[in-house]
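User: Sequence in, structure out. Go.
Assistant: Echoing your sequence, followed by the structure tokens.
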Amino acid sequence: MDLVERNRLWSRLGSAVAGLPEPPATPLAVVDLDLFDANADDLVRRAGGKPLRVASKSLRVPALIERALGRPGFAGVLAYTLAEALWLHEHGLSDDIVVAYPTVDAAALRRLTSSPSAAAAITLMVDDPAHLDAVDATRSSLAVPVRVALDLDAGLRLGGQRVGPRRSPLLDTADVVAMARRVADRDGFRLVGVMTYEGQVAGVPDDVPGQRARSLLVRRLKQASMAQLASRRSEIAEALRPVAQLEFWNGGGSGSVESTAADPAVTEVAAGSGLLVPGLFDHYTSFEPRPAAFFGLRVTRRPGPTTVTVHGGGLVASGPTGADRSPLPWAPPGLRLTVLEGAGEVQTPLTGHPAASLAIGDLVWFRHAKSGELFEHVREVHLVRGDAVTAVVPSYRGCEVAF
């Protein structure tokens, strides 16, 4: 968004909120449906015909998950906990759910293994025989088979080092095949899929202003990573054919849709952050950012002619601490956090020329650094189209279910 679009956004969101029966509490979360839909269309275009699995961790709003799944090109959910997957299945949002991370949640596993319907709809992620043991410890019968997928390390191996997320111990083809045979030879389990998440490609910006040399290095590392991973995926896929008939091979994320979809071994691409485009997704060469999620905070003080203070604001994203994890003042444009105070739990001072025209009670709109995490701070999400709120829907937190 350029400065003109951000000023229009400030006016438009302010008008939408002003039309509500009474002023809502802050932080006030909104999602622009026009931008959400445009982002969804762009993800489908980038996927080049391969289905997109919705990464629920990056949404955490049932209505938005349902909206994405209702669009051509999207199929299935990539959940982040088994309890969440069970909730999504029980509430009819999807009958094709892959849990992206291994689970040892005994209560949720008991629910899964006692429900043929849930067990047929949900796939667990494993990378260690202990994960199979955790399932067996919760059931007294093997009557309900459990679907599992293997999570493989997808990092770049460079000079004896691994570049990428530290996710899985399954590194070499021999390790993967050995684990696959453990699953295939064990009663009560079905190996149906594989996951390779190349976070060093999908989750790292590569066109950051003021960081030309670093961005060039990141782009070269991404190219090397995808070339190496394509070779590894091909080799592993061939080695797994005698062991199991796989239903899917999941890979990538919003930042790597094109390159991941181009790999013949991959049958589907995960995407979630690209639907909302948080602050950390602003600087990629692979797509044009269209921010669709915002949160509003009200001005409560005016310490000086070019400074205002908003109530709250300390919605800092997970990951390595740094300025890029802080919320980003967005509309009106020109406001910035102060160096000494940053985004505070109780209050956040903002400086910049727009402060001169802001009055106590006015809303300032921010963007969260990471997608999905914003909605852990609110129970309701306001869906906006144009300058009107079209619906108020619950977040996961508002559903009062512990995920």
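User: And one key feature?
Assistant: The mean pLDDT is 95.
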